[in-house]
Amino acid sequence: MTELNYVPTICPYCGTGCGIYLVVKDGEIVGVEPWKEHPVNEGKNCPKGKNAYGFVYGDGRLEKPLIKENGSFREATWEDVLEIIADKLKDADGSSVGFINSGRTTNEDLYVVQKFARCVMKTNNLDNSSRFCHSTTVPALLSTVGAGVMETSTISIGKADCIILAGVNIHETYPMIARRVRKAKDKGATVVVIDPRETVTVKNYADIHLRLNPATDVALVNALMKIIIEEGLDNKEFIESKTSGFDALKDYLAKQDMSELEKITGVSRDLIREAAEAYAKAETGCIIYNAGEAQHAEGVGNIQTLADLTLLTGNQGRPGAGVNPLRGHINGEGFGDMGPIPVFYPGFVPVSEEGAKKFEALWGVEGLPPEKGMSYMDMIEKCSILYMMGANPMVSAPDINRVRGLLENKDLLVVQDMFMTETAELADIVLPAQTWAEEEGTVTETDRRVQFMNKAVEPPEEAKPDWMPFCELAKLMGYGDKFDFNFGAEIFEEIRKVVPTYTGITYERLKQAGGIQWPCPSEDHPGTDTMFADGKFKTPDGLGHFQVVEYKPPAEPVDDEYPLALCTGRILFHYHTGAMSRRTEKLNFEVPEALVEINPEDAKEKGIEDRARVVVESRRGEIRPIAKVTDDVPEGGVFVPWHFAECTGNALTGPSAGPPSKMPEYKYVAVKIEKGGE
User: Fold this and answer.
1) SS3 track for 273-314
2) CB-count burial class (<10 Å; 0-12, 13-18, 19+) for 307
3) 348 and 368 share a domain?
């Protein structure tokens, strides 16, 4: 009888970092078992985690390199495709070449692609699909507390006395982190949810639901802070000793009219006061937020006000406190740490003359570019050559009808992925990549937790780890000595040398359940559960900096022609562009097609019945989902999940992007709905 082999690894979906065992029989994954000793999820898994391996054997798995000729793909050898790519890159100016990657690839993959772009192509045109999650987080938190990361650990959330869940349907999108919220609630913590929708999270967790009008988050948090100051609940000692800029914020809030803030937000001052007092009086207050705050053109301001709220009450530097962004991808934190982005080298060293000189010395090269590169959408628009590693903008990018036209007109589009995705179908060259179960490597999850993933099974014969083609291209282009990597462990050793927060982390140490949270400065250091525990922030002067943020209405407000406000987002059974979850039979069975949630009053006005096919249209396109008539969405609002390529909300979203993040407006799009569309 064949023995079962249980291989410990990390769930490949969201950024929580849950431990699982892949059950392997005769060289094939046959199931998933809980990793009971793992501290993050304690042997529990959500539906995606329980079915984590299904997509490995899903339809459309790429096994050989492909070249498009006369509109059709043919199989090719690795030697042929790499020579074509290398020849194109040799003839190209680095400013015309862009590299777009994914937060579901490993630290090793991300490190190598950014090193190739900078050393070989001399360009900082690098970006990641995680830009569409948290490009607002980094500038917002750098300006306030000096570090754009989760401050506590997911495990410590249970220590909080008051938890504000801002723009995150945590029960569906991070079920195992939601367990920590539940544990805190069961011990007496007050849970405040800020969300226009009455989500499962609201129904199951909320003691106070601040059901604000869409895109009025800044006005709401300003109202919370105004009440805290007026009632003398601000932490004066903390403000005096550890912050700057308070007087300007206090003066600004004093001039705000509470009646006007009530009108803007649609939330009564009594309910705002109840939430403000619960948070300000808590011994440990925790703010957790995600896309509902970040995915706005004005997302930087949304997050700055949340950080202001923690500084105002002194909820910083303790386990379970702080302002805490949740990452959507398995390696959502690692993508920033490794530096495949236009404004930072690895370790968040700013792209500049000084940064370039530092990495020239570290890498032994000359001529690294000191200028900031293009961001994701700028590259799609302006670069003549694009190399995409695991990214699928034909589902995830805004205004995909326009994106299609841009991608179809590239001189060279290379897509490296596990599957023939919607973006890969437009490529000139498609390269087969290994899944997370077919290679060993590291990922860094939402709370700065670096973890190790074991190889469980062999890949399709010609699929390669994502980092390897870049090493082979570097050899063809005369830089082989800088990319002499044969294993992921060799790449990670270089990462440890150039990213100080990873210095004390080794592959051997990571094989312990739960990994290590950075910063970890030495091999005998346990890792860092809580940021700013020494009382100093990561700003140049060590102080937290209050920011004054004025409410701004959406750039594309609803009107008579487009009277409804669309919000896009995630649901429990699917993940991002659906490339993995929709190739997993059990998950796809639960929700096989796209729905649009619409309020009963809006449905009645249009004669729309539950489960009827409808047409949802914006100024940029239309989709034809099934109507779900529900009070969960407010009157005047609709919700569409983004997982369904054939019916994606991103056919409706627009290019509106707020500086400096260039975050598209995903959470407020003016649309209209009509019955029909059969």
Assistant:
1) HHHHHHHHHCCCEEEEECHHHHCCCCHHHHHHHHHHHHHHHC
2) buried
3) yes
Q: Do 374 and 476 share a domain, yes or no? A: yes
Q: Is the pLDDT of residue 132 over 80?
A: no
Q: How far apart are CA 187 and CA 202, in angstroms?
A: 18
Q: DSSP letters along 333-368, please?
A: THHHHH--BTTEEGGGEESSHHHHHHHHHHHT-S--
pLDDT exceeding 90 applies to what percent of the chain? Answer: 82
519: preceding bond cis by omega (within 30 degrees): yes
Strand ranges in 419-553 using DSSP code E only, listed in sequence order: 429-432, 441-444, 449-453, 516-517, 544-545
Query: Tokens in use for 617?
Result: 């249209």
- 367 and 483 in a common domain: yes
Share of the chain above pLDDT 70, in %: 98
Q: If we measure between CA atoms, which residue out of 567, 613, 496, 581 comes closest to residue 12?
A: 581
CB 356 within 8 A of CB 365: no
Single-letter amino acid, residue 364: G
Average pLDDT of the chain is 94
Question: For residue 624, what pLDDT is reported?
Answer: 94
Q: What is the CATH number of the domain that holds 102?
A: 3.40.50.740
Cis peptide leading into 553, omega within 30 of 0? no
- Nearest CA to 297 among 555, 618, 551? 555
Burial 370-379 (b: 16+ CB within 10 A, else e): eeebbbbbbb
Would you state the structure tokens that stand for residue 229, as one six-digit string?
Answer: 């100051």
Query: At 214, which CATH number?
Result: 3.40.228.10
- Least-confidence region, from 58-62, 76-80, 390-394: 58-62
Distance between CA atoms of residues 419 and 580, nearest Å: 9
Query: What burial letters (b/e) apply to 274-306, b meaning 16+ CB within 10 Å?
Result: bbbbbbbebebbbbbbbbbbbbbbbbbbbbbbb
297 & 187 share domain? yes
Q: Which two tokens stand for residue 366?
A: 């000359």
Express each pLDDT in 360-381 by its tens digit.
Answer: 999 999 999 999 999 999 999 9
Please write the tens of the pLDDT for every residue from 563-613.
999 998 888 888 777 778 888 888 888 888 889 999 999 999 999 999 999
The CATH number that applies at residue 635 is: 2.40.40.20
- Per-residue model confidence (pLDDT) at position 384: 98
The Cα-based distances of 110 to 6, 337, 438, 491 in angstroms read 28, 9, 17, 10
Q: Return the structure tokens found at 535.
A: 């009382």
Q: Which residues pair with 544 in a beta bridge?
A: 243
Number of domains observed in the structure of the chain: 4
> Is the pTM of the predicted complex or chain greater than 0.85?
yes
What are residue 192's DSSP bridge partners?
A: 164, 208
Please indicate, yes or no, whether residues 192 and 287 belong to a single structural domain of this protein: yes
pLDDT above 90 (res 248) = yes
Exposure class string for 26-47: b at 16+ Cβ within 10 A, else e: eeebeebebbeebbbbeebbbb
Q: Do 139 and 257 belong to one domain? A: yes
- Domain span at 595: 564-675
434 and 375 housed in the same domain: yes
* Same-domain pairing of 106 and 243: no
Tokens of 620: 């940029």
**Torsion sign (Cα): 570, 574, 575, 576:** negative
Backbone CA torsion sign across 75, 78, 79, 80: positive
How sure is the predictor about 60, in pLDDT bands with cuts at 50, 70 and 90? confident
Please state the length of the chain.
678
